[in-house]
């Protein structure tokens, strides 16, 4: 049975006086320990799906199930221990006035786990896991580079040892070389901890590198679902997928 | 010298305290490059010193009357700022008055901004009906002219420094609530707030641990800039006989009693007036400097 | 003769921790060709582009042994003459059209204002010219776009309007700073094609600043690779795959490819010697 099941999901909300139907009947299933990708251009509703899972966007139709059970209307602490998210912009996702120590310690404090010296040990281990020196512990976010901040954000998401990690364009704000490091880190952590990824990106190449299956989205609808092998064989049916594929490969293949 | 400086500027602090002090030190470095802010700070420090060391700085007892030596002009042999209508030394009264001014400032600082910050952040964070109710309440308080409302309170509660402060605090919080709410509205949608909510944090923790620290700088700046107005209101209440009562050496009260001699013995009212002016100026200059240092947008780089 | 010649350009910022050099001795020349400047964030590529227009704000300072544009000494001429050059002979397209267009002014007015004020054109002539410019960037319904406010345009449309606006005075040099990075991939290609066509047609010089090595190589004649304020490699665009410098090689290799192997991506090991 799939770990995450999304059934005919609709999300509608009012933004700036306009009625937005951001997600229009999307269904997908993510197996446990799998890595699933959502790819699409701006306004395709891909990030909205992640936000809907977290309760940051209203579900107006359909259902989201985790482990066969509909997720609670109010995302509680138990939900927080299972599902965590990494945001796109590492400059906006860390509290500017909290040290890294506080940022990483906060989840432990909220859930009342790992008190006293154990908390410090957990924070140091989390830093080590994402490849950051212990010297970073008491720095503020503005003293870190974008890549280092994103590592902290990943470490924070893993503090409660969740099974599901939602990744919202986790590397699109990073330089290419830093993106490679962050993607490698995510792959390693997934292998080590048996995590389930639901990853959103506008970059088909990134999704292809990271995910076993993916759904191409456009204007709130799922255009096509593909797996890794199909994409490698260029075995796609929808024109839009082909267009996206061509635009992406054209960009990359140019140097060769 | 270089040892503690290196410790403060250590890019890899070893404790939360060191990290915080390091940031404070950087803030101080930024502030210290602004000469006007430094003048403001100097004035506030002078006020603090005067209040703390009043018995040492005062040349006379501020309450002892000497009717033989009344209304002596400044620079007279025994009284360098002159004496008032009861022959009390004006300098000594000003120095002791600094304590009352500081008392007022301290009392207002621990009440109005705190109330404003709580109401503003709660209102901005929850939005909806909570926001509507709290903000209309704020509007009601904001609609009253400050001095008139303070007058009404003092009239109801009776004159005295504490009641004057209470009256001022009750009328001073709405602007802070407004500032805090505006700041909260921009912070509320930030990813780091979404992240902490996803970690399962409750509203109380988010508001006081994550939102309020972002609002604090603007509120602090606003309080510093308002301090001049607060001192003036307190002085005004004193002047009207509704704040501090004689024979307390409160500056507004001193102006009030000097009013009768304004044309012949100008110094009786002018000296406390100058004191109010200088302290107000000090708070304003410091507030302007703090705005540059504390602005979260400016220091994020 | 080259259009733009830059020798030993330095951009320094005074900070609390002492001066920080964002550009450290960059020299290059540009004739009527397409020159790419590539680097990651903090490499000084944007600062280099802005220096040409002297658009560096205090506490930043520009120094150069030589900085001449068509015989004009950019480093020495007074600000008034610089203003006359900006937009007219040297134009700049920036990353996000949202920040470059005035949000409360109709597109039409923004396009024609310069023509009417600077060149004293009549309203009708300016409008005709603006329409022509919008057609040149392949906007299908230019009449409607002229009446629109910037927020009513999509990202790709806004960027095309920006390009049209910059090209109206027919500048000799266009500096494009990440002109397509804020756009979707399918739109990117189109905007680039338009930009490319216009540059070729009018024979102007182009300085194309980007973080994307592949994009630049496809689009430019020559590429400068910058690292921490220095040029580490200069190479003909079509010979990019034979790049020598380990930094350039690293940048080329670290991108994931579709259908590529699942092993970890090669990462860049930075060498202190590159800074020399």
From TrEMBL, chain A:
Pfam families, per database record: ABC_tran (PF00005)
Stretches assigned to the ABC transporter domain: 4-244
BP term (GO), one: transmembrane transport
Nucleotide-binding is among the record's keywords: yes
SUPFAM superfamilies the UniProt entry points to: P-loop containing nucleoside triphosphate hydrolases (SSF52540)
Keywords per UniProt: ATP-binding, Nucleotide-binding, Transport
Gene Ontology molecular function, alphabetical: ATP binding; ATP hydrolysis activity
CDD domains, sorted: ABC_NikE_OppD_transporters
Transmembrane portions of the chain: none
Highest rank taxon of the organism: Bacteria
Similarity annotation: Belongs to the ABC transporter superfamily.
Protein name, entry field: ABC transporter ATP-binding protein
Organism: Thermohalobaculum xanthum
Upper classification of the organism: Bacteria, Pseudomonadati, Pseudomonadota, Alphaproteobacteria, Rhodobacterales
Automatic annotation (TrEMBL), chain B:
ABC transmembrane type-1 domain mapped to chain residues: 98-287
Source organism, top-level taxon: Bacteria
Alphabetized CDD domains for the sequence: TM_PBP2 (cd06261)
SUPFAM superfamilies noted in UniProt: MetI-like
Alphabetical keyword list: Cell membrane, Membrane, Peptide transport, Protein transport, Transmembrane, Transmembrane helix, Transport
Biological process annotations from GO: peptide transport; protein transport; transmembrane transport
InterPro entries: ABC_transport_permease, BP-dependent_transpt_permease, MetI-like, MetI-like_sf, OppC_N
Gene3D superfamilies: MetI-like
Transmembrane segments: 36-58, 100-127, 147-173, 223-245, 265-287
Protein's name according to its UniProt entry: ABC transporter permease
Organism for this UniProt entry: Thermohalobaculum xanthum
Upper taxonomic lineage: Bacteria, Pseudomonadati, Pseudomonadota, Alphaproteobacteria, Rhodobacterales
TrEMBL record, chain C:
Entry-linked Pfam families: ABC_tran
A Gene Ontology molecular function term of the record: ATP hydrolysis activity
Superkingdom: Bacteria
Keywords from the named record: ATP-binding, Cell membrane, Membrane, Nucleotide-binding, Transport
Membrane protein topology class: Peripheral membrane protein
Keyword Transport: yes
Domain called ABC transporter: residue spans: 4-253
Keyword Metal-binding: no
GO BP terms: transmembrane transport
Family: Belongs to the ABC transporter superfamily.
Cited PANTHER family: DIPEPTIDE TRANSPORT ATP-BINDING PROTEIN DPPD, OLIGOPEPTIDE TRANSPORT ATP-BINDING PROTEIN APPD
Protein name (database record): ABC transporter ATP-binding protein
Organism annotation: Thermohalobaculum xanthum
Phylogenetic classification of the source organism: Bacteria, Pseudomonadati, Pseudomonadota, Alphaproteobacteria, Rhodobacterales
């Amino acid at each position: 049975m799939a770990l995450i099941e999304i059934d005919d999901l609709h999300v509608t909300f009012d933004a700036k006086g306009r009625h937005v139907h951001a997600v229009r009947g999307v269904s997908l299933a993510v197996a446990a320990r799998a890595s699933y990708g959502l790819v699409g251009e701006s306004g395709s509703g891909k990030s909205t799906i992640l936000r809907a899972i977290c309760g940051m966007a209203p579900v107006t139709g359909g259902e989201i199930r985790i482990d066969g059970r509909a997720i609670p209307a109010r995302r509680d602490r138990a939900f927080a221990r299972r599902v965590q998210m990494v945001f796109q912009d590492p400059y906006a996702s860390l509290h500017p006035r909290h040290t890294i120590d506080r940022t990483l310690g906060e989840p432990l404090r909220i859930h009342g786990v790992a008190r006293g010296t154990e908390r410090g040990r957990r924070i140091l281990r989390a830093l080590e896991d994402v490849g950051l020196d212990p010297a970073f512990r008491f720095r503020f976010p503005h003293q870190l580079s974008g890549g280092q901040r994103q590592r902290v954000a990943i470490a924070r998401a893993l503090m409660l040892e969740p099974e599901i990690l939602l990744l919202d364009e986790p590397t699109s704000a990073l330089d290419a070389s830093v993106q490679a490091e962050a993607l490698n880190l995510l792959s390693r952590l997934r292998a080590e901890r048996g995590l389930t990824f639901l990853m959103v990106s506008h970059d088909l190449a990134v999704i292809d590198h990271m995910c076993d299956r993916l759904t191409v989205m456009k204007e709130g609808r799922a255009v096509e679902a593909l797996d890794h092998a199909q994409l490698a064989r260029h075995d796609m049916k929808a024109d839009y997928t082909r267009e996206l594929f061509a635009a992406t490969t054209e960009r990359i293949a140019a140097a060769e | 010298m270089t040892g503690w400086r290196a410790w403060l500027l250590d890019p890899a602090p070893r404790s939360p305290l060191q990290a915080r002090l390091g940031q404070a030190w950087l803030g101080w470095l930024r502030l210290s490059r602004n000469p006007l802010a430094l003048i403001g700070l100097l004035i506030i420090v002078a006020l603090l010193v005067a209040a703390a060391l009043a018995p040492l700085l005062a040349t006379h007892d501020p309450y002892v009357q000497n009717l033989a030596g009344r209304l002596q002009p400044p620079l007279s042999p025994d009284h360098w700022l002159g004496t008032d209508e009861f022959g009390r030394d004006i300098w000594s009264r000003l120095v002791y008055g600094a304590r009352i001014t500081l008392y007022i400032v301290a009392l207002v600082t621990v009440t109005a901004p705190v109330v404003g910050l709580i109401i503003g952040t709660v209102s901005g964070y929850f939005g909806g009906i909570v926001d509507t109710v709290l903000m209309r309440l704020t509007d009601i308080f904001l609609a009253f002219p400050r001095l008139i409302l303070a007058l009404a309170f003092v009239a109801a509660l009776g004159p005295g420094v504490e009641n004057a402060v209470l009256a001022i605090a009750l009328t001073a919080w709405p602007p802070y609530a407004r500032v805090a709410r505006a700041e909260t509205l921009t912070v509320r949608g930030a990813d780091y707030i979404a992240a902490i909510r996803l970690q399962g944090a409750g509203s109380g923790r988010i508001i006081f641990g994550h939102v309020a620290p972002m609002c604090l700088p603007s509120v602090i700046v606003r309080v510093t800039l308002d301090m001049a107005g607060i001192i003036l209101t307190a002085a005004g209440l004193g002047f009207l006989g509704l704040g501090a009562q004689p024979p307390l050496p409160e500056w507004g009260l001193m102006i009030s009693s000097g009013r009768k001699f304004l044309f012949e013995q100008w110094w009786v009212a002018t000296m406390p007036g100058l004191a109010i002016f200088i302290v107000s100026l000090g708070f304003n200059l410091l507030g302007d400097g703090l705005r540059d240092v504390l602005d979260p947008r400016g220091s994020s780089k | 003769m080259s259009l733009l010649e830059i020798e030993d350009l330095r951009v320094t910022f005074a900070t609390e921790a002492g001066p920080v050099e964002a550009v450290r001795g960059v020299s290059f020349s540009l004739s009527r060709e397409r020159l790419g400047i590539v680097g990651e964030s903090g490499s000084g590529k944007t600062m280099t582009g802005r220096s040409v227009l002297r658009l560096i704000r205090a506490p930043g300072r520009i120094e150069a042994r030589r900085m001449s544009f068509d015989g004009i000494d950019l480093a020495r001429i007074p600000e008034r003459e610089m203003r006359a050059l900006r937009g007219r002979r040297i134009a700049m397209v920036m990353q996000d059209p949202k920040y470059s267009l005035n949000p409360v002014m109709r597109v039409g007015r923004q396009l024609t204002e310069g023509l009417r004020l600077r060149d004293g054109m009549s309203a009708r002539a300016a409008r005709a010219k603006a329409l022509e410019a919008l057609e040149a960037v392949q906007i299908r319904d230019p009449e409607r776009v002229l009446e629109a406010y910037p927020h009513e345009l999509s990202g790709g449309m806004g960027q095309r309007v920006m390009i049209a606006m910059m090209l109206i005075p027919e500048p000799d040099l266009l500096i494009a700073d990440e002109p397509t990075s804020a756009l979707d991939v399918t739109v990117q290609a189109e905007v680039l094609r338009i930009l490319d066509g216009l540059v070729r047609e009018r024979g102007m010089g182009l300085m194309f600043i980007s973080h994307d090595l592949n994009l630049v190589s496809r689009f430019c004649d020559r590429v400068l690779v910058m690292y921490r304020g220095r040029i580490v490699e200069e190479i003909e665009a079509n010979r990019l795959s034979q790049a020598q410098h380990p930094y350039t090689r690293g940048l080329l290799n670290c991108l994931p490819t579709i259908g590529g192997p699942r092993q970890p991506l090669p990462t860049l090991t930075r060498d202190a010697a590159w800074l020399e």
